[in-house]
Amino acid sequence: MITVPAFFERSGEEFRPLPLARSLWSDQALLGPAVCGLLAHELERQCLPEGFSPARFFVELHRPVPAVPLSVRTSISRNQGRLCAASAELMAGDKPVARATLAFLRKSGPPPGEMWTSTRKPPVPPDDFPDDQQLYASDEFGGWSTELGDHMNSSRKRTWMPRVGELVAREKLSAFVAAAILGDQANLVCHWGTEGVGYINIDLSMTFARLPESVPMGMGIEVDSQFAAEGISSGTAIVYDHDGPIATATVSALANPLRQVDLASLGKESVAEAS
Question: Fewer CB within 10 Å, N- or C-terminus of the chain?
Answer without folding.
Answer: N
